[in-house]
Protein backbone atom coordinates (compact mmCIF):
# COMPACT_ATOMS: atom_id res chain seq x y z
CA UNK A 1 0.00 0.00 0.00
CA UNK A 2 1.18 3.49 -0.81
CA UNK A 3 1.81 5.54 2.35
CA UNK A 4 2.47 8.94 0.88
CA UNK A 5 0.15 10.85 3.18
CA UNK A 6 0.25 11.83 6.84
CA UNK A 7 -3.44 11.21 7.53
CA UNK A 8 -5.00 8.56 9.71
CA UNK A 9 -6.91 6.96 6.85
CA UNK A 10 -8.25 3.45 6.38
CA UNK A 11 -10.65 1.62 4.08
CA UNK A 12 -13.86 0.00 5.30
CA UNK A 13 -16.88 -1.67 3.78
CA UNK A 14 -20.34 -2.41 5.09
CA UNK A 15 -23.08 -4.39 3.38
CA UNK A 16 -23.42 -2.10 0.37
CA UNK A 17 -20.84 0.73 0.48
CA UNK A 18 -17.10 1.29 0.40
CA UNK A 19 -15.68 4.03 2.60
CA UNK A 20 -12.46 5.90 3.11
CA UNK A 21 -12.35 6.67 6.82
CA UNK A 22 -10.33 9.56 8.22
CA UNK A 23 -9.86 9.78 11.97
CA UNK A 24 -10.24 13.25 13.46
CA UNK A 25 -9.42 12.39 17.06
CA UNK A 26 -10.82 14.86 19.57
CA UNK A 27 -11.17 17.75 17.10
CA UNK A 28 -14.20 19.97 17.61
CA UNK A 29 -16.57 18.94 14.83
CA UNK A 30 -19.06 21.72 15.53
CA UNK A 31 -17.39 23.88 12.92
CA UNK A 32 -19.69 25.01 10.07
CA UNK A 33 -17.30 23.46 7.52
CA UNK A 34 -18.14 19.94 8.72
CA UNK A 35 -21.84 20.78 8.41
CA UNK A 36 -21.26 21.96 4.84
CA UNK A 37 -19.45 18.75 4.01
CA UNK A 38 -22.30 16.63 5.35
CA UNK A 39 -24.83 18.73 3.40
CA UNK A 40 -23.05 17.67 0.16
CA UNK A 41 -23.63 20.95 -1.64
CA UNK A 42 -20.47 20.79 -3.75
CA UNK A 43 -20.69 18.22 -6.54
CA UNK A 44 -16.94 17.86 -7.06
CA UNK A 45 -16.32 16.72 -3.48
CA UNK A 46 -16.63 13.17 -2.19
CA UNK A 47 -19.83 12.66 -0.24
CA UNK A 48 -19.09 12.15 3.45
CA UNK A 49 -20.77 11.74 6.82
CA UNK A 50 -19.53 12.55 10.33
CA UNK A 51 -19.64 9.74 12.89
CA UNK A 52 -18.68 9.68 16.57
CA UNK A 53 -17.38 6.36 17.91
CA UNK A 54 -16.09 6.00 21.49
CA UNK A 55 -15.61 9.76 21.92
CA UNK A 56 -13.58 9.92 18.69
CA UNK A 57 -14.78 11.55 15.48
CA UNK A 58 -14.46 10.05 12.01
CA UNK A 59 -15.27 11.26 8.51
CA UNK A 60 -16.65 8.50 6.28
CA UNK A 61 -16.13 9.33 2.61
CA UNK A 62 -18.20 7.26 0.19
CA UNK A 63 -15.95 5.57 -2.38
CA UNK A 64 -18.49 3.55 -4.38
CA UNK A 65 -17.44 3.42 -8.03
CA UNK A 66 -14.39 5.59 -7.30
CA UNK A 67 -10.72 4.79 -7.67
CA UNK A 68 -7.69 6.88 -6.84
CA UNK A 69 -5.83 8.34 -9.79
CA UNK A 70 -2.82 6.23 -8.77
CA UNK A 71 -4.89 3.05 -9.30
CA UNK A 72 -6.89 4.34 -12.27
CA UNK A 73 -3.83 5.34 -14.29
CA UNK A 74 -1.50 2.56 -13.15
CA UNK A 75 -1.95 0.54 -16.35
CA UNK A 76 -2.95 3.11 -18.97
CA UNK A 77 -1.44 6.51 -18.27
CA UNK A 78 -3.25 9.86 -18.30
CA UNK A 79 -3.44 11.52 -21.71
CA UNK A 80 -3.81 15.19 -22.65
CA UNK A 81 -7.61 15.33 -22.69
CA UNK A 82 -7.90 13.56 -19.32
CA UNK A 83 -5.39 15.98 -17.82
CA UNK A 84 -7.45 18.89 -19.15
CA UNK A 85 -10.60 17.36 -17.61
CA UNK A 86 -8.77 17.12 -14.30
CA UNK A 87 -7.94 20.84 -14.27
CA UNK A 88 -11.48 21.73 -15.38
CA UNK A 89 -13.06 19.69 -12.56
CA UNK A 90 -10.56 21.10 -10.06
CA UNK A 91 -11.45 24.68 -11.03
CA UNK A 92 -15.21 24.01 -10.80
CA UNK A 93 -14.79 22.37 -7.41
CA UNK A 94 -12.78 25.31 -6.04
CA UNK A 95 -15.41 27.79 -7.29
CA UNK A 96 -18.24 25.77 -5.72
CA UNK A 97 -16.34 25.51 -2.44
CA UNK A 98 -15.90 29.30 -2.32
CA UNK A 99 -19.68 29.74 -2.55
CA UNK A 100 -20.12 27.70 0.64
CA UNK A 101 -17.19 29.35 2.49
CA UNK A 102 -14.90 26.31 2.20
CA UNK A 103 -11.23 27.14 1.72
CA UNK A 104 -9.12 25.63 -1.05
CA UNK A 105 -6.54 24.72 1.60
CA UNK A 106 -8.88 22.00 2.85
CA UNK A 107 -8.52 19.92 -0.33
CA UNK A 108 -6.34 16.88 0.29
CA UNK A 109 -4.26 16.67 -2.91
CA UNK A 110 -2.51 13.29 -2.91
CA UNK A 111 -2.39 10.43 -5.38
CA UNK A 112 -4.58 8.34 -3.04
CA UNK A 113 -7.26 10.93 -2.24
CA UNK A 114 -7.92 12.43 -5.67
CA UNK A 115 -10.48 10.02 -7.08
CA UNK A 116 -11.89 9.15 -10.52
CA UNK A 117 -15.52 8.25 -11.10
CA UNK A 118 -15.13 5.19 -13.31
CA UNK A 119 -18.66 5.42 -14.72
CA UNK A 120 -18.57 9.12 -15.69
CA UNK A 121 -14.84 9.72 -16.04
CA UNK A 122 -15.01 12.82 -13.81
CA UNK A 123 -12.69 13.65 -10.93
CA UNK A 124 -13.72 13.87 -7.25
CA UNK A 125 -11.77 15.45 -4.43
CA UNK A 126 -11.51 14.88 -0.69
CA UNK A 127 -12.15 17.90 1.53
CA UNK A 128 -10.72 17.79 5.04
CA UNK A 129 -11.06 21.07 6.98
CA UNK A 130 -7.59 22.30 7.87
CA UNK A 131 -4.39 23.45 6.19
CA UNK A 132 -3.16 20.87 3.66
CA UNK A 133 -0.77 23.10 1.71
CA UNK A 134 2.19 20.77 2.07
CA UNK A 135 0.56 18.18 -0.21
CA UNK A 136 0.31 20.16 -3.43
CA UNK A 137 4.01 20.29 -4.38
CA UNK A 138 4.44 16.55 -3.83
CA UNK A 139 1.22 15.90 -5.74
CA UNK A 140 2.40 18.02 -8.69
CA UNK A 141 5.63 16.04 -8.95
CA UNK A 142 3.84 12.68 -8.65
CA UNK A 143 1.36 13.75 -11.34
CA UNK A 144 4.20 13.69 -13.87
CA UNK A 145 4.69 9.97 -13.15
CA UNK A 146 1.16 8.92 -14.12
CA UNK A 147 1.06 11.04 -17.29
CA UNK A 148 1.54 9.21 -20.58
CA UNK A 149 5.15 9.98 -21.52
CA UNK A 150 4.40 9.17 -25.16
CA UNK A 151 2.03 12.15 -25.18
CA UNK A 152 4.42 15.09 -25.39
CA UNK A 153 1.71 17.71 -24.83
CA UNK A 154 0.53 15.99 -21.66
CA UNK A 155 4.08 15.78 -20.30
CA UNK A 156 4.72 19.47 -21.01
CA UNK A 157 1.42 20.43 -19.34
CA UNK A 158 2.26 18.36 -16.24
CA UNK A 159 5.67 20.02 -15.84
CA UNK A 160 4.14 23.44 -16.42
CA UNK A 161 1.71 22.64 -13.59
CA UNK A 162 4.72 21.97 -11.33
CA UNK A 163 6.20 25.35 -12.25
CA UNK A 164 2.93 27.18 -11.57
CA UNK A 165 2.65 25.48 -8.18
CA UNK A 166 6.13 26.68 -7.26
CA UNK A 167 5.30 30.22 -8.39
CA UNK A 168 1.72 30.62 -7.07
CA UNK A 169 1.70 28.33 -4.05
CA UNK A 170 -1.64 26.79 -3.09
CA UNK A 171 -3.94 29.08 -5.11
CA UNK A 172 -5.52 26.08 -6.79
CA UNK A 173 -8.40 27.85 -8.54
CA UNK A 174 -6.01 30.29 -10.26
CA UNK A 175 -3.57 27.53 -11.23
CA UNK A 176 -6.34 25.28 -12.55
CA UNK A 177 -7.87 28.11 -14.58
CA UNK A 178 -4.50 29.04 -16.07
CA UNK A 179 -3.78 25.44 -17.02
CA UNK A 180 -7.26 24.92 -18.49
CA UNK A 181 -7.03 28.11 -20.58
CA UNK A 182 -3.59 27.25 -21.93
CA UNK A 183 -4.58 23.71 -22.81
CA UNK A 184 -7.82 24.91 -24.45
CA UNK A 185 -5.87 27.41 -26.55
CA UNK A 186 -3.51 24.70 -27.75
CA UNK A 187 -6.48 22.52 -28.71
CA UNK A 188 -8.02 25.41 -30.66
CA UNK A 189 -4.74 25.91 -32.49
CA UNK A 190 -4.69 22.24 -33.44
CA UNK A 191 -8.32 22.37 -34.62
CA UNK A 192 -7.56 25.36 -36.85
CA UNK A 193 -4.92 23.29 -38.62
CA UNK A 194 -7.31 20.35 -38.98
CA UNK A 195 -6.54 17.87 -41.71
CA UNK A 196 -2.78 18.45 -41.43
CA UNK A 197 -0.26 16.45 -39.53
CA UNK A 198 0.42 17.72 -36.01
CA UNK A 199 3.54 19.86 -35.86
CA UNK A 200 5.57 18.15 -33.17
CA UNK A 201 9.26 18.66 -32.45
CA UNK A 202 9.29 21.99 -34.35
CA UNK A 203 10.78 23.54 -31.24
CA UNK A 204 13.78 21.29 -31.79
CA UNK A 205 14.37 22.73 -35.25
CA UNK A 206 17.56 24.54 -34.17
CA UNK A 207 18.97 21.30 -32.80
CA UNK A 208 18.25 19.53 -36.06
CA UNK A 209 19.85 22.32 -38.06
CA UNK A 210 22.93 22.23 -35.87
CA UNK A 211 23.90 18.87 -37.40
CA UNK A 212 22.77 19.09 -41.03
CA UNK A 213 22.95 16.05 -43.21
CA UNK A 214 24.75 16.36 -46.54
CA UNK A 215 22.30 13.98 -48.18
CA UNK A 216 19.48 16.33 -47.32
CA UNK A 217 21.07 19.26 -49.09
CA UNK A 218 21.94 17.05 -52.06
CA UNK A 219 18.34 15.86 -52.40
CA UNK A 220 16.76 19.25 -51.83
CA UNK A 221 14.98 20.56 -54.92
CA UNK A 222 15.39 24.30 -55.40
CA UNK A 223 12.65 24.44 -58.03
CA UNK A 224 10.08 24.37 -55.21
CA UNK A 225 11.40 27.70 -53.90
CA UNK A 226 11.27 29.18 -57.40
CA UNK A 227 7.68 28.02 -57.85
CA UNK A 228 6.59 29.47 -54.52
CA UNK A 229 8.33 32.79 -55.24
CA UNK A 230 6.68 33.06 -58.67
CA UNK A 231 3.29 32.29 -57.15
CA UNK A 232 3.84 34.95 -54.50
CA UNK A 233 4.75 37.53 -57.13
CA UNK A 234 1.64 36.75 -59.19
CA UNK A 235 -0.55 37.07 -56.08
CA UNK A 236 1.03 40.43 -55.24
CA UNK A 237 0.38 41.65 -58.79
CA UNK A 238 -3.28 40.60 -58.54
CA UNK A 239 -3.64 42.46 -55.24
CA UNK A 240 -2.10 45.61 -56.74
CA UNK A 241 -4.44 45.48 -59.73
CA UNK A 242 -7.46 45.23 -57.45
CA UNK A 243 -6.22 48.17 -55.38
CA UNK A 244 -5.73 50.27 -58.54
CA UNK A 245 -9.20 49.33 -59.82
CA UNK A 246 -10.88 50.29 -56.54
CA UNK A 247 -9.06 53.65 -56.37
CA UNK A 248 -9.95 54.46 -60.01
CA UNK A 249 -13.59 53.58 -59.39
CA UNK A 250 -13.75 55.88 -56.38
CA UNK A 251 -12.04 58.68 -58.33
CA UNK A 252 -14.58 58.33 -61.19
CA UNK A 253 -17.41 58.52 -58.69
CA UNK A 254 -15.97 61.66 -57.13
CA UNK A 255 -15.61 63.25 -60.60
CA UNK A 256 -19.26 62.50 -61.30
CA UNK A 257 -20.27 64.24 -58.05
CA UNK A 258 -18.14 67.27 -58.95
CA UNK A 259 -19.74 67.51 -62.44
CA UNK A 260 -23.24 67.37 -60.94
CA UNK A 261 -22.56 70.31 -58.66
CA UNK A 262 -20.62 72.35 -61.21
CA UNK A 263 -22.83 72.07 -64.34
CA UNK A 264 -26.63 72.11 -64.75
CA UNK A 265 -27.93 68.78 -66.07
CA UNK A 266 -31.13 67.71 -67.75
CA UNK A 267 -33.31 65.13 -66.00
CA UNK A 268 -31.97 62.37 -68.25
CA UNK A 269 -28.34 63.39 -67.63
CA UNK A 270 -29.11 63.58 -63.93
CA UNK A 271 -30.31 59.97 -63.88
CA UNK A 272 -27.29 58.77 -65.91
CA UNK A 273 -24.82 60.60 -63.62
CA UNK A 274 -26.42 59.17 -60.48
CA UNK A 275 -26.29 55.65 -61.89
CA UNK A 276 -22.63 56.05 -62.90
CA UNK A 277 -21.72 57.42 -59.45
CA UNK A 278 -23.55 54.58 -57.71
CA UNK A 279 -22.00 51.87 -59.88
CA UNK A 280 -18.45 53.22 -59.53
CA UNK A 281 -18.70 53.64 -55.76
CA UNK A 282 -20.21 50.15 -55.40
CA UNK A 283 -17.49 48.58 -57.52
CA UNK A 284 -14.73 50.42 -55.66
CA UNK A 285 -16.04 49.41 -52.22
CA UNK A 286 -16.59 45.81 -53.39
CA UNK A 287 -13.03 45.69 -54.71
CA UNK A 288 -11.68 46.95 -51.37
CA UNK A 289 -13.69 44.34 -49.43
CA UNK A 290 -12.52 41.60 -51.80
CA UNK A 291 -8.89 42.70 -51.42
CA UNK A 292 -9.10 42.69 -47.62
CA UNK A 293 -10.69 39.22 -47.56
CA UNK A 294 -8.19 37.98 -50.11
CA UNK A 295 -5.33 39.27 -47.99
CA UNK A 296 -6.62 37.41 -44.92
CA UNK A 297 -7.00 34.25 -46.98
CA UNK A 298 -3.49 34.59 -48.34
CA UNK A 299 -2.11 35.11 -44.84
CA UNK A 300 -3.81 31.93 -43.64
CA UNK A 301 -2.53 30.06 -46.69
CA UNK A 302 0.96 31.37 -46.00
CA UNK A 303 0.75 30.12 -42.43
CA UNK A 304 -0.44 26.72 -43.66
CA UNK A 305 2.35 26.61 -46.26
CA UNK A 306 4.91 27.44 -43.57
CA UNK A 307 3.61 24.64 -41.39
CA UNK A 308 3.71 22.19 -44.30
CA UNK A 309 7.21 23.29 -45.21
CA UNK A 310 8.35 22.85 -41.60
CA UNK A 311 6.86 19.36 -41.53
CA UNK A 312 8.50 18.45 -44.84
CA UNK A 313 11.85 19.82 -43.65
CA UNK A 314 11.71 17.78 -40.48
CA UNK A 315 10.72 14.67 -42.43
CA UNK A 316 13.53 15.11 -44.93
CA UNK A 317 16.05 15.65 -42.16
CA UNK A 318 14.88 12.54 -40.39
CA UNK A 319 15.10 10.53 -43.61
CA UNK A 320 18.57 11.88 -44.27
CA UNK A 321 19.65 10.99 -40.72
CA UNK A 322 18.31 7.47 -41.21
CA UNK A 323 20.23 7.13 -44.48
CA UNK A 324 23.45 8.37 -42.87
CA UNK A 325 23.02 6.04 -39.89
CA UNK A 326 22.38 3.12 -42.25
CA UNK A 327 25.49 3.98 -44.27
CA UNK A 328 27.65 4.29 -41.16
CA UNK A 329 26.34 0.96 -39.82
CA UNK A 330 27.01 -0.66 -43.18
CA UNK A 331 30.57 0.71 -43.28
CA UNK A 332 31.25 -0.44 -39.71
CA UNK A 333 29.93 -3.87 -40.58
CA UNK A 334 32.23 -4.06 -43.60
CA UNK A 335 35.24 -2.97 -41.53
CA UNK A 336 34.49 -5.59 -38.89
CA UNK A 337 34.09 -8.20 -41.57
CA UNK A 338 37.46 -7.27 -43.11
CA UNK A 339 39.14 -7.40 -39.70
CA UNK A 340 37.65 -10.78 -38.87
CA UNK A 341 38.61 -12.10 -42.29
CA UNK A 342 42.20 -10.90 -41.96
CA UNK A 343 42.37 -12.41 -38.48
CA UNK A 344 41.14 -15.73 -39.79
CA UNK A 345 43.63 -15.65 -42.67
CA UNK A 346 46.56 -14.79 -40.36
CA UNK A 347 45.71 -16.99 -37.42
CA UNK A 348 43.41 -19.87 -38.10
CA UNK A 349 45.04 -20.94 -41.36
CA UNK A 350 48.24 -21.41 -39.41
CA UNK A 351 46.33 -23.37 -36.79
CA UNK A 352 45.01 -25.76 -39.41
CA UNK A 353 48.44 -26.38 -40.93
CA UNK A 354 50.42 -26.99 -37.77
CA UNK A 355 47.68 -28.14 -35.38
CA UNK A 356 48.39 -31.80 -35.91
CA UNK A 357 52.11 -31.32 -35.38
CA UNK A 358 51.51 -29.48 -32.09
CA UNK A 359 49.14 -32.18 -30.95
CA UNK A 360 51.60 -34.98 -31.63
CA UNK A 361 54.46 -33.09 -30.00
CA UNK A 362 52.37 -32.41 -26.92
CA UNK A 363 51.37 -36.04 -26.67
CA UNK A 364 55.03 -37.10 -26.76
CA UNK A 365 56.70 -34.39 -24.78
CA UNK A 366 53.95 -33.44 -22.36
CA UNK A 367 52.64 -30.00 -21.66
CA UNK A 368 56.12 -28.45 -21.38
CA UNK A 369 57.10 -29.21 -24.97
CA UNK A 370 55.35 -26.18 -26.32
CA UNK A 371 54.74 -24.10 -23.23
CA UNK A 372 55.51 -20.42 -22.94
CA UNK A 373 59.03 -21.16 -21.65
CA UNK A 374 60.02 -23.49 -24.53
CA UNK A 375 59.47 -22.00 -27.98
CA UNK A 376 62.07 -24.03 -29.89
CA UNK A 377 59.53 -25.15 -32.43
CA UNK A 378 58.40 -21.57 -33.00
CA UNK A 379 62.02 -20.46 -33.55
CA UNK A 380 62.69 -23.34 -35.94
CA UNK A 381 59.56 -22.44 -37.87
CA UNK A 382 60.78 -18.87 -37.99
CA UNK A 383 63.97 -20.06 -39.66
CA UNK A 384 61.99 -22.28 -41.97
CA UNK A 385 59.77 -19.46 -43.14
CA UNK A 386 62.74 -17.17 -43.62
CA UNK A 387 62.79 -13.39 -43.82
CA UNK A 388 59.72 -13.33 -46.08
CA UNK A 389 57.48 -14.46 -43.18
CA UNK A 390 54.95 -11.83 -42.13
CA UNK A 391 55.42 -9.99 -38.86
CA UNK A 392 52.21 -11.41 -37.46
CA UNK A 393 53.41 -15.01 -37.81
CA UNK A 394 55.57 -15.29 -34.67
CA UNK A 395 53.03 -13.84 -32.23
CA UNK A 396 50.40 -16.16 -33.68
CA UNK A 397 52.69 -19.16 -33.34
CA UNK A 398 53.54 -18.28 -29.75
CA UNK A 399 49.88 -17.71 -28.93
CA UNK A 400 48.92 -21.01 -30.51
CA UNK A 401 51.68 -22.83 -28.66
CA UNK A 402 50.61 -21.51 -25.28
CA UNK A 403 46.97 -22.23 -26.07
CA UNK A 404 47.71 -25.84 -27.08
CA UNK A 405 49.89 -26.37 -24.02
CA UNK A 406 47.10 -25.12 -21.72
CA UNK A 407 44.61 -27.36 -23.48
CA UNK A 408 46.65 -30.51 -23.00
CA UNK A 409 47.56 -29.55 -19.47
CA UNK A 410 43.88 -29.25 -18.57
CA UNK A 411 43.13 -32.50 -20.36
CA UNK A 412 45.72 -34.42 -18.31
CA UNK A 413 44.78 -32.84 -14.96
CA UNK A 414 41.97 -34.45 -12.89
CA UNK A 415 38.60 -32.73 -13.18
CA UNK A 416 37.25 -30.90 -10.09
CA UNK A 417 33.58 -30.01 -10.48
CA UNK A 418 33.68 -27.59 -7.54
CA UNK A 419 30.68 -26.27 -5.63
CA UNK A 420 28.08 -23.79 -6.86
CA UNK A 421 27.19 -21.15 -4.26
CA UNK A 422 23.55 -20.02 -4.23
CA UNK A 423 22.82 -16.34 -3.68
CA UNK A 424 20.84 -15.15 -0.68
CA UNK A 425 18.31 -13.29 -2.83
CA UNK A 426 14.81 -14.82 -2.77
CA UNK A 427 13.81 -16.95 -5.72
CA UNK A 428 11.22 -15.31 -7.99
CA UNK A 429 8.00 -17.23 -7.99
CA UNK A 430 6.88 -17.57 -11.60
CA UNK A 431 3.44 -19.09 -11.86
CA UNK A 432 -0.09 -18.68 -13.13
CA UNK A 433 -3.59 -18.31 -11.74
CA UNK A 434 -5.91 -20.99 -13.10
CA UNK A 435 -9.67 -20.58 -12.73
CA UNK A 436 -11.74 -23.35 -11.20
CA UNK A 437 -15.30 -24.42 -12.00
CA UNK A 438 -15.70 -22.52 -15.28
CA UNK A 439 -16.45 -23.95 -18.70
CA UNK A 440 -13.55 -21.98 -20.20
CA UNK A 441 -10.48 -21.97 -18.00
CA UNK A 442 -9.07 -18.49 -17.37
CA UNK A 443 -5.28 -18.32 -17.03
CA UNK A 444 -3.62 -15.22 -15.58
CA UNK A 445 0.13 -15.12 -16.18
CA UNK A 446 2.33 -13.46 -13.57
CA UNK A 447 5.36 -12.97 -15.82
CA UNK A 448 4.78 -9.22 -16.23
CA UNK A 449 3.97 -7.43 -12.99
CA UNK A 450 2.38 -5.23 -11.72
CA UNK A 451 -0.86 -6.56 -13.18
CA UNK A 452 -4.21 -4.83 -12.67
CA UNK A 453 -7.32 -7.03 -12.95
CA UNK A 454 -10.88 -5.86 -13.69
CA UNK A 455 -13.57 -5.69 -16.36
CA UNK A 456 -13.00 -2.13 -17.66
CA UNK A 457 -11.15 -2.46 -20.95
CA UNK A 458 -8.46 0.13 -21.53
CA UNK A 459 -7.93 0.70 -17.80
CA UNK A 460 -6.69 -2.71 -16.63
CA UNK A 461 -4.00 -5.14 -17.75
CA UNK A 462 -6.16 -8.28 -17.61
CA UNK A 463 -9.88 -8.14 -18.39
CA UNK A 464 -12.34 -10.59 -16.79
CA UNK A 465 -15.69 -9.91 -18.52
CA UNK A 466 -17.93 -10.95 -15.63
CA UNK A 467 -20.80 -9.03 -14.05
CA UNK A 468 -19.61 -9.49 -10.48
CA UNK A 469 -16.08 -8.25 -11.20
CA UNK A 470 -15.47 -4.55 -10.51
CA UNK A 471 -14.17 -2.21 -13.17
CA UNK A 472 -10.80 -2.03 -11.41
CA UNK A 473 -10.87 -4.97 -9.02
CA UNK A 474 -7.40 -5.97 -7.74
CA UNK A 475 -3.71 -5.86 -8.53
CA UNK A 476 -0.81 -8.31 -8.42
CA UNK A 477 2.67 -6.92 -7.86
CA UNK A 478 6.12 -8.09 -6.84
CA UNK A 479 8.24 -6.69 -4.05
CA UNK A 480 11.60 -8.03 -2.83
CA UNK A 481 11.12 -11.17 -4.91
CA UNK A 482 7.73 -11.99 -3.32
CA UNK A 483 4.35 -11.67 -5.02
CA UNK A 484 1.54 -9.73 -3.37
CA UNK A 485 -2.16 -9.35 -3.99
CA UNK A 486 -4.05 -6.17 -3.11
CA UNK A 487 -7.75 -5.37 -3.34
CA UNK A 488 -8.50 -1.98 -4.90
CA UNK A 489 -11.84 -1.37 -3.21
CA UNK A 490 -13.87 -3.87 -5.22
CA UNK A 491 -17.60 -4.27 -4.64
CA UNK A 492 -17.73 -8.04 -4.22
CA UNK A 493 -14.29 -8.38 -2.70
CA UNK A 494 -11.03 -10.26 -3.19
CA UNK A 495 -10.31 -13.38 -1.14
CA UNK A 496 -7.09 -15.17 -0.20
CA UNK A 497 -7.48 -18.72 1.09
CA UNK A 498 -11.10 -17.98 2.01
CA UNK A 499 -10.41 -14.71 3.88
CA UNK A 500 -11.65 -11.46 2.41
CA UNK A 501 -8.92 -8.87 1.96
CA UNK A 502 -9.23 -5.40 3.37
CA UNK A 503 -9.02 -2.74 0.67
CA UNK A 504 -5.52 -1.42 -0.02
CA UNK A 505 -3.96 -4.02 2.32
CA UNK A 506 -1.54 -6.27 0.41
CA UNK A 507 -1.09 -9.93 1.26
CA UNK A 508 1.63 -12.30 0.05
CA UNK A 509 0.63 -15.28 -2.06
CA UNK A 510 2.65 -18.43 -2.73
CA UNK A 511 2.11 -21.42 -5.03
CA UNK A 512 -0.76 -23.56 -3.77
CA UNK A 513 -2.83 -20.62 -2.48
CA UNK A 514 -6.45 -20.07 -3.43
CA UNK A 515 -7.36 -16.63 -4.78
CA UNK A 516 -10.94 -15.53 -5.42
CA UNK A 517 -12.12 -12.46 -7.29
CA UNK A 518 -15.79 -12.06 -6.39
CA UNK A 519 -17.21 -15.55 -7.08
CA UNK A 520 -14.48 -16.69 -9.52
CA UNK A 521 -11.95 -18.98 -7.81
CA UNK A 522 -8.34 -19.30 -8.98
CA UNK A 523 -5.54 -21.65 -7.96
CA UNK A 524 -2.04 -20.21 -7.95
CA UNK A 525 0.55 -22.72 -9.07
Amount of beta strand: 5-15%
From the spread of the alpha carbons, the general shape counts as elongated
In the predicted model, the low-confidence regions spanning at least 5 consecutive residues are 1-5, 196-226, 347-355, 358-397
Name of the CATH homologous superfamily of one domain: Transferase(Phosphotransferase) domain 1
Residue-averaged pLDDT: 76
Q: How is the quaternary structure best described?
A: single chain
How many DSSP H or I helices? Answer: 12
Helix and strand content put the structural class at alpha+beta
* CATH architectural group of one domain: Orthogonal Bundle
Give the helices and strands as they follow along the chain: EEHEEEHHEEHHHHHHHHHEEEEEEEEEEE
Main sheet attributes: strand count, strand direction, barrel closure: 6 strands, antiparallel
Could you please say which CATH topology of one domain applies here? Transferase(Phosphotransferase), domain 1
Helix fraction? 40-55%
